[in-house]
Amino acid sequence: MLALSNRQRQALHDAHNALINARRLCESSKDFEEHIEVLALELRTAMDALSLLVGEIAADELLDRIFANFCIGK
To answer: What is the pTM of this model?
Structure first.
């Protein structure tokens, strides 16, 4: 069994769901090009989640981590 942290499990789950959504979109539409932007968004979501899984940090994630430790407004 593979030992994963909660963050890694969530990233794997997010990537899996995004890829399932992309696959369904391709299968359900005769001309998936009509929904190419939605397909691109699902694929980007999967890529971002997999990047987190392997240790690459996306810019938004990095900013979230940095500002999570600050108390703004005090």
So the answer is: 0.69
